[in-house]
Amino acid sequence: MAEAHQAVAFQFTVTPDGIDLQLSREVLKHIYLSGVTSWKKRAIRFKNGVLTGVYPASPSSWLIVVIAIMSTMYARIDPSRGMIDRIKTSLPVSLETLLFLMFLKEVSSAHQACIYLIKNKEKTYLESVRPLLDDEQYKQMETVANDFKKDPAPKFQKHLKLKSWWATNYVSDWWEEYIYLRGRDPIMVNSNFYTMDLLYVIPTHRQAARAGNVVHAMLQYRRKLERGELTPLRALGIVPMCSFQYERMFNTTRIPGIETDFVQHLKDRKHLVVYHRGRFFKVWLYYGGRHLWPSELELQFQRILDDKSEPQPGELKLPSLTAGNRVPWARARLKYFTEGINQASLEAIETAAFFLTLDDEAHGYDPENIRSLDLYAKSLLHGKCYDRWFDKSFTLIVYKNGKIGVNTEHSWADSPIIGHMWEYVLATDCFQLGYTAEGHCKGDINKSLATPTRLQWDIPKACQEIIESSYMIAKGIANDVDFHGCLFNEFGKGLIKKCRTSPDAFIQLALQLAHYRDKGEFCLTYESSMTRMFREGRTETVRSCTCESTAFVRAMEDESTTNEQRLALFKKAADKHQNMYRLAMTGAGIDRHLFCLYIVSKVMGIDSPFLKQVLSEPWRLSTSQTPQQQLNLIDIQKFPKYVGAGGGFGPVADDGYGVSYIIVGENLITFHISSKFSSPETDSFRFGQNIRQAMLDIRALFNLKEKM
């Protein structure tokens, strides 16, 4: 996804000097710090586990219960009235059973603790680049890879294995730091991603009412999250997936720094900050110890919409600081926002539960306007470059026609995490909270609530110039985004199942065919796969351009090849893709391992031509599937109009495409395609047409004409 851009663009700044022993100590220092961070997280989780384990009571009341039980034991009184003895009789637990259960727990913990390091990653890498290199280039790369395998790979691997024993996850902390937080380029478009509203439905056209329901639903979700009431997701319905990323969904902000940013996560925050027409407002979310009801939130948001005050000097475009380069923002923050009213107002934003923009534009899907999804996506991705706070964990955007969306900062989590919350919010908004016949939130209106508070600023001219400079940089990036939203409804998952093929493999091969037709060549292709079966796991790369897929594509373009031959090549390529996806999910991918070896090489000060080549290769086709129905709260067979439109991200390479897709039910696949206007080689609309045709051409191989 968006991390593919950062994986190529990041720069390593740690350059220790000294003898080899000192360099090794530098690596050990990094490993030690990773371990300390991991153990701190474990301590926090243990504490939270104790607190949630006795909820809604307090730990002190739990102590009273323990004392009471000990008293009954001392007095030899059976408080269960014989029930415990009956359970023992009906469910005998042997020592062997207890040992087996303990063994399972330990194995599970070990499985979570480390993504196992496997050998021959270089061989797997060479196999992945073979279709992209001619014979001479391949031999050269083979030589470089073999040299690396002999030396210094064993040195790097030793340190990495040590880290895997000490830290919770040998990849994730370095991935967050070096791919995201150390990046000095703008995060708007380059890193942040977006999620859309329901595709066909707008529950109410009243902006304040929609905001009221959605914010209340988010607060409900946050409460469930904090109490541990959300059921963990399971891969294939069996293996529980790590929920670590959910912990920083709310009350979280990315704080800019000169060399690196850091993620600030706080405990329960009781307010949010709203941006409307260049003004910032602080809105309290609690009243009398409870969440505000949707009707009360609607009242507060309507008060903001009705406020006719003008922005203060420098206030209108202030959020563009979060859209521009990181260093100017970090320096401006230190110079102009560390005291007085500026510090107080910035603190209100950075400590808020999340950020809300009441947008003055109207967006959404319009069947009569072929470019409506394009404008909607661009608005969610970058807006006006000054009306989203791109550093917040997420910005909720509510348009004046009632449509909504989310812009998410990427360092703290990946898209399935925000998608999980989004599914809950949309289902709660439409099917639990609902609206009156006039489109207002249900419930009484408490007019005694204190009105939202305007945040105050004193922004000097010098700071206003920095704000304007950041805005101009962000505007240049935004204007270069060529986006196209493509609704493919000729067929969907239902028909693909008849082909006895994975829907993801089917789509990935269609993308390979479309790209070849678009550019006349193959390219390194990135598909994001989750690794959340491991503790604190995030993503791994599936290299979708393979020898098998290129053979299939060439066969499709060769008129002398029969459909039977093409179909055989398709099935072979699809099987290859499915196997690679399984390997990536189970920790046997190559890219995160090579990335960590590269980090070790830089810390040790040992130059590796092989790793340098691997980490500098551009992903000219970056793809990601948006998960759907993680919670199954909406029966889309019964309510086919209540389907999500998915989400997307900005272009990864200057001359490449970013493609996000969501498989919606049985009959619809939505593609979100991005590229850059500045590249003469790309055209997002053209690529969308190529994808559509490629999907149809592959279907024709199976002689399945009916629409499912």
Automatic annotation (TrEMBL):
Residues at the active site: H410 (proton acceptor)
Coiled coil stretches, renumbered: none
Pathway per the UniProt entry: Lipid metabolism; fatty acid beta-oxidation
Catalyzed reactions per annotation: (R)-carnitine + hexadecanoyl-CoA = O-hexadecanoyl-(R)-carnitine + CoA
Domain Choline/carnitine acyltransferase: 123-693
Gene Ontology molecular function, alphabetical: carnitine O-palmitoyltransferase activity
UniProt record, GO biological process: carnitine metabolic process; fatty acid beta-oxidation; long-chain fatty acid transport
Domain Carnitine O-palmitoyltransferase N-terminal span(s) in chain numbering: 1-47
Top-level taxon of origin: Eukaryota
Residue ranges of the TM segments: 60-77
GO CC terms in record: mitochondrial outer membrane
Keywords, in A-Z order: Acyltransferase, Fatty acid metabolism, Lipid metabolism, Membrane, Mitochondrion, Mitochondrion outer membrane, Transferase, Transmembrane, Transmembrane helix, Transport
Localization: Mitochondrion outer membrane
Membrane-topology annotation of the record: Multi-pass membrane protein
EC number: 2.3.1.21
Family: Belongs to the carnitine/choline acetyltransferase family.
Functional note: Catalyzes the transfer of the acyl group of long-chain fatty acid-CoA conjugates onto carnitine, an essential step for the mitochondrial uptake of long-chain fatty acids and their subsequent beta-oxidation in the mitochondrion.
Protein name: Carnitine O-palmitoyltransferase 1, muscle isoform
Organism: Cyprinus carpio (Common carp)
